Amino acid sequence: MTWCLAHLIRILMRCVGEAAINGKDIPSLLPTPSIRLFVPFPQKREKKANMTGPYPSESARTKAVFPLSNGTSHGGWSAQLVSKQDNILTISMASPVNAPVGVYTLSAQISSRGKDFILKLGTFIQLFNPWLPEDGVFMNNHAEREEYVQEDAGIIYVGSTNRIGMVGWNFGQFEEGILNICLSILDHSLNFRRDPATDVARRNDPKYVGRVLSAMVNGNDDNGVLSGNWSGNYTGGLDPRNWNGSVEILKEWKKSGFRPVRYGQCWVFAGTLNTVLRCFGIPSRVVTNFNSAHDTDRNLSVDVYYDPYGNPIEKGSDSVWNFHVWNEGWFVRTDLGPSYNGWQVLDATPQERSQGVFQCGPASVAAVREGDVNLDFDMPFIFAEVNADRITWIYDAYNNTQKRNASDTHSIGRYISTKAVGSNSRVDITEKYKYPEGSSQERQVFEKALGKLKPHAAFGATSARHLAGEEREPSISGKFKVTGLLEVGKEVNMALLLKNLTSDMKTVTVNMTAWTIVYNGTLVHEVWKDSVTISLDPKEEIQHPVKITYAQYEKYLKADNMIRTTAVCQVSDEAEVLVERDIILDNPNLTLEVLDQARVQKPVNVQMLFSNPLDEPVKDCVLMVEGSGLLLGSLRIDVPTLRPKERSRVRFEILPTRSGTKQLLADFSCNKFPAIKAMLSIDVAE
């Protein structure tokens, strides 16, 4: 009898793809899950049981036992009889808003003729639900919900304050297998390994889940998803610039037996975390902060060092990154109060330990703006990223002395950017993080934050701000000006503009250097230096040419294409004037073209065009292509060696599987160009 019953039960629980938002009740646009029971017994009583995690219990809300009823749900788990036809029952199931996310086992207890039978019906996955007003991740605006939950491709901003660029990213949260991999991320966390029952029970809280994921997307403590590398040497793995999206990273992590994938940098960590958050139903977006401070000692200032010859020095643990990328997740903060609900910073890039682990956030964006650095989590670090003072020092290793050169209270935290809702435009959200630079509110918030930190930190940073106004005005000013095209393979042409601000003649000794760098300021190699003495008449302004040849920087330029130029300008008996500028060289264009009308399940031809701009061959050429809804997995094409100035034309085929506007992403790499990017929006018809 048991055997017969087991073989007559069928479960039909529908979701959109594998990563449906079908937990905690279902949005009206999704089909309602139903269970059809083929039961031949005339008399019966039924109960349903759901459970999740290794030690399910009703007290921890990881197990629920509930009867089949004709009434409506009152907030807990419930199973309601929808219809009865012959011996077929259609049953609708509802879940409570505070149920933990994860994989559940569904069983039925059936009593008939004095006998009880417990049958395992199958499993289903419970996710957060941004469509449901009672859910902690509820997002009311439809367009925002579509962008921050349903959109499976996006844009990440990179570069520098004077040259903001962008790269496409394939989030791919609906791709086959991704939801299961994302669930396994939670099950590999340190929290799960230490206390699995408590960890699973806490997965009803997006704040908790987000913090665990910020630790697990990096592999520093826990064999998480990605291994970070900012050295400029990526032997044994992939240059972080070569990734097109999260899907291949997550699949590689699983394929390797859950060992960290090599290598990631901040936008790779952020793109991957964004995939996982959206996969779980937490609205999320990727955010870029330009001139991002890395303050290691909680004093709201970062110290930057140069030697008297203009060489940047890696001294101390503070740094300023040209850009840094993190995530924002949208959810309530029941621990802080409703004024701190909404966007929360989550950062998976391993920078500093928090509670002994490389994790960061969630930190309320509203709290960052108001300087509430005493609140959870990691508020002092995130506040400093967008508000710290930048203190420049001249360090003389020969005499073991250092002199404070300048204090800059305005340059940190610029052009904080994210992709616009429904378009590929850039939106500046700096005002969400801080009041206008230099305003009275901004000053008040900074002092408030200092007051909430340790007394000695408050004194040190307050002094830095006060001293900034007391520093002696220099007699000269200087800046670097770009005078030619900035392209890889071409000579870099700039000019150092020096101006005498006084009515006296000045003699200036100038020491200049140029270094290739990684975007976070890591020095790679000195590629140029020069020293000159210049006489300036009263109020005179001159331009001193700076030329850096391709032969000088070619071997040392990394995929960031960044060169840091510095000049230390010394007028006798006066403090040095430091002039600096980071430049970014443009790669040659990589073009993608669709040759046919794109339709679902119809092969489409795409063409890649690339011209070698150099006077020498480029070899070891590889084209990597991916795009959710356009390709299953990724496509790798080996491209033949290109002669000097030769144009390459490569055709390949894609097979769209979903209609709508989809994003095709390409990365072209060779021995002379480590990572050239292209993206193309393709409208796919039914």
From TrEMBL:
Q: How is the cofactor bound?
A: Binds 1 Ca(2+) ion per subunit.
Annotated Gene Ontology MF terms? Answer: metal ion binding; protein-glutamine gamma-glutamyltransferase activity
In this record, what's one Pfam family? Answer: Transglut_core
User: Is-annotated flag, keyword ATP-binding?
Assistant: no
Q: Which residues form the signal peptide?
A: 1-19
- Catalytically driven reaction(s): L-glutaminyl-[protein] + L-lysyl-[protein] = [protein]-L-lysyl-N(6)-5-L-glutamyl-[protein] + NH4(+)
Query: What cofactor does its activity depend on?
Result: Ca(2+)
Q: What is its EC number?
A: 2.3.2.13
Checking InterPro entries in the record gives: Ig-like_fold, Ig_E-set, Papain-like_cys_pep_sf, Transglutaminase, Transglutaminase-like, Transglutaminase-like_sf, Transglutaminase_animal, Transglutaminase_C
List ligand-binding residues for Ca(2+): N387, D389, E437, E442
Task: Tell me the keywords, alphabetical order.
Answer: Acyltransferase, Calcium, Metal-binding, Signal, Transferase
Q: Which SMART domains match?
A: TGc
Q: Which residues form a coiled coil?
A: none
UniProt keyword annotation of Metal-binding present:
yes
**UniProt-annotated catalytic positions:** C266, H324, D347
Please state every residue range assigned to the domain named Transglutaminase-like: 258-350
Q: Which family does it belong to?
A: Belongs to the transglutaminase superfamily. Transglutaminase family.
Q: Which PANTHER family match?
A: PROTEIN-GLUTAMINE GAMMA-GLUTAMYLTRANSFERASE (PTHR11590), PROTEIN-GLUTAMINE GAMMA-GLUTAMYLTRANSFERASE E (PTHR11590:SF36)
This one is known as: protein-glutamine gamma-glutamyltransferase
Organism, scientific name: Ailuropoda melanoleuca
**What's the encoding gene here?**
TGM3
